[in-house]
Amino acid sequence: MADPNIRIKRSSVPGKVPTTGQLPLGELALNTYDAELFARRERTGIGTDIVRLGAGATVTNILYVTQDGNDSNTGKKLGDAKRTIGAALTEATTGTVIKVSAGSYLENNPLTIPSQVSIVGDSLREVSVSPQNADQDLFYVANGNYVAEMSYTGTLNSGKAIFAFNPNEIGYFDQSPYVQNCTNFIPNSIGMRIDGIKAIGPTKSMVVDSYTQYNQGGIGVSITNEGYAQLVSLFTICNDTAVYCGSGAACDLTNSNSSFGNYGLVADGIGPLKYTGIITSAASANAFEFVLDLNVPTLNVTDALYDNTTGLTTITVDANHGFNVGMGVSVVGLAFTCPSGPGIVTYPSGNYGYIFEVQAVPSSTSFEVYVGVSTLQHTYQSSGTVKINAVRPFDGQVVYFDTLYYTVGGVTVSSGGTGYTQNVDITFGSPSEPWGIPATAVGEVKDGSVTKVEMVSNGRGYTTAPTVTFASPDVGVNTATGTADLIPTYYVIESSTPISAGICTITLTDNVPYAVGLGTTVPFFKQSRVLASGHSLEYIGSGTNIAGALPQNGGVPIQDNETDSRGGGLVVFTSTDQAGNFRIGDGVVINQQTGTISGTFYSKSLFSTMTPFILALGGD
Fold first, then answer.
1. Which residues lie below 8 Å from residue 40, measured CB to CB, with a gap of 6+?
2. Residue 412 burial (10 A CB sphere; 0-12, 13-18, 19+)
3. In angstroms, rounded to a whole number, what is the distance separating the alpha carbons of residues 450 and 414?
4. Are 258 and 487 in contact (CB under 8 A)?
5. Model's pTM, two decimal places?
6. What's the CA gap between 36 and 16, in Å, rounded?
7. Per residue in 404-414, pLDDT tens?
8. In a 10 Å sphere around its CB, with 0-12 CB exposed, 13-18 middle and 19+ buried, how is residue 23 labelled?
9. Segment holding 521, helix H or strand E
């Protein structure tokens, strides 16, 4: 049977059909000459002018996009392909794979990808996608998406992202969107923005394998508001910040590289208050284990107003709730009527869980949560309870006891002064607490002025910024001045016992240097964290313009910018820099050039360390 999608250019041969045309659909036979010619060409490839049109059978869950396609096509066969990814997305449903052929595609962004839809390009180098609207993100991702084998070019405004959660339709996530083998070339953009407040569900995460960011001046991956990411083979070049975790967000970063740019790995601050415990047994100074009461009251719902267009529900309870924005609360057993339903329905159903995040607090007895949009308005009838979601404390949370204290993280030099010939002693005002210790530092001098302050000891027990006093200059009276930069002191949870009858024992990674009394309040927060294993940090701090950042063009790295733990956030890392020096956090550095291991408390030659082990093993 002839393939109805084959066009044959027939040759003029005496006695044969000397015309050129397309075989009619459903044609079952050719004359002898045409059949032989068709068979020979199919068998050997010899002959000319065979062109496949609409090749391949129709597959219902695959849509094709090609550079010479047309958006009015069905997209269900390669020869009937769409012209843009956006047009294919309008046809895509759960389980659809969109195959994008080699070419350049200008897209009317943002492109909203439905749940469980994949977009796969022919080749990372040969498929280029550009945004039409610089003031919008490029892709909005949903649960279970997969995007692979394409590059992103063109222009986006600063702060706009290639991939982001949809801020207009907050989705439920139990399977992370996955980006693999892609490259972002758009300057000042964010390669992936994971804002946890724009998602609900157990993950609020995205995952990456082999995603390169050559978006000069932008951010590689930004994770905020308790979002989460697993990043493998992430490569950033000339970013303002390679990876940023803020407001309780976290990521695991493995086998990756950050080159040039301003900052490498940044963990900034903590998330919102989650719940508060009460000390049930007094503890002496330098304790690290504490017994807490984590009981939370159950409140009765008296009213609930659901807005089906925004997806927000305002819930009123029978007592002061004490909730804060960002706090997780359980909502159970509310009875609603639905115009199309049979009588009373119970909400939530549990399909998306029972824990919701507080979005706003209009009053002491009311709060708002996002439950999702609907085409139908539902009316509250009765019943329902709410309470704070107090979970077993875990590694990744931090606490303090009654009062938040600070250490001195550094000094901002206001004026470098003049007339200095050597490094300068710096003294700090005393902390407010008797168990406190004053900070100490030394000012580094260049060309007669203080240009940098090196902290010797961060001190402890400060509640306000202490005074900073520089020693007088060796020549003249123009003394340097500066202000202290404070770092909040949070204590990290190492482990905890299961909550039993509301009681739990927590173990901290550090001792608390003061006594903690009975009834002390202990607020719990999620810490912003970057956990990086085997990360290469090369020429970080040299700038976001590759022409000037290269060492041969004068680019100078800034060691302190490789990792930055701000405001209680924490970067935990093992890394290698451009000199091959290996670091285990801030405490241990193996310097290949000098052959030394150095750290906060020691410095020892690698040779003197290893030789005894070699001899003990019988080595030469």
1. 46, 47
2. exposed
3. 10
4. no
5. 0.84
6. 12
7. 999 999 999 99
8. middle
9. strand 521-526
